[in-house]
Request: fold
Amino acid sequence: MPAFLALILVLAILLLLWVTANIIGVMFTLLIAGLIGWLADSIVPGRLPYGWVGAILAGLVGSWIGPQLVGHVGPVIARIPVIPAIVGAIIVAIVVSLLQKGGASKQQR
Reply:
């Protein structure tokens, strides 16, 4: 019986470590995506909506679009290819900026 309890305790600790490592990995991925989105927001004139959430979304979408257009070039941090992600996030920021300008001109009429 004590061996069974020790086995369950070890399995519970391993499960908690695995969950913690995955949560930290997701948080690190979101951090890198936010930095990439912030960089794209700094390069493109205009502002991304929703502040840092918009920057994270631009970084995540850019990290999906960029490798489709550029390929996997350059370093990979937190499963995000940095150079293609920046290119993709800039494209996302340009599209959002154009959509915001188009919506603003329609509202002024």
The chain has a mean pLDDT of 87. Residues 26-104 form one domain. The radius of gyration is 20 Å.
